Amino acid sequence: MEYLDFELPIKELLEQLDKCQIIGEESSVDVTETCKLISQKLEDTKKDIYGNLTAWQRVQLSRHPSRPYTLEHITNLTKGTFLELFGDRNFKDDKAMIGGLGKIGDQSFMFVGQQKGINTKMRQFRNFGMPNPEGYRKALRLMKMAEKFNIPVVTLIDTPGAFPGIEAEERGQGEAIARNILEMVRLKVPIICVIVGEGASGGALGIGVGDRVLMMENTWYSVISPESCSSILWKSWEYKEQAAEALKLTSADMKRQKLVDDIIPEPLGGAHYDKATAFKTVEEYILKAFNELKDLSTTDLVSQRMDKYSKMGEYNE
Question: What percent of the residues of the chain are helix, what percent strand, and what percent coil, each to the nearest 5?
């Protein structure tokens, strides 16, 4: 397990507990009471740290190297039924955007999401989860296919943003994202969006328009990352913590502003501490959302989706 800077007190207590247990196993000294005290202190420390996380600390947890990525979520949700589909039928297959058909229980879904990769070589292969225009066009192709066969769509969002390279702009990055937003608003099947990691800028919004938008507890969703915001406002990355607070990007902030529909709770410490529980909880929330949408007529489904996004940003002075 890798530990973030604010998790170091937990690491130290775990090391103390390990040493205490080793002493008990290798000698005749009774360390039962000592181990209990350390265990209790460990639990109290975890509750204190994870119960009072700052916005920046949640951003760090969303990027934790042990955190499950999109493909791991899909694999565990579909339990061997996932069939990946490739290509945008125009330019090439974008490895940063994955998609395909799979089942949760007896219900088929079209899954679409960004994949970052789990080590350096795979991150390069996946372009660090930053899709090119062909990635968004592939996503749209799969969503239109789902519409044709009346299959609900699940999108899993985890991206630091769409790829900002010159070649991406030359192939129409902005147009591809805008086209996805337009088409997703009027897609005639249920769309359930789940933010499982980072939800940055138009890169996230390009597959983030849905009837239900769910955020895992330790994720973030914003027009810009805290580091980029800090570099623009203060000309330095040193103020990223203040920027994270000002951006109101946590799941609680998003729910309070009615920009997302629900928060998916995570195990204490984050999804990577207990992946099985995290996957099960995500599955439950997806099925709950689908059951709320499945009996709506196409007209009501699209109408409610349009109304939902039309009301965003309304406020009373």
Answer: 50, 15, 35
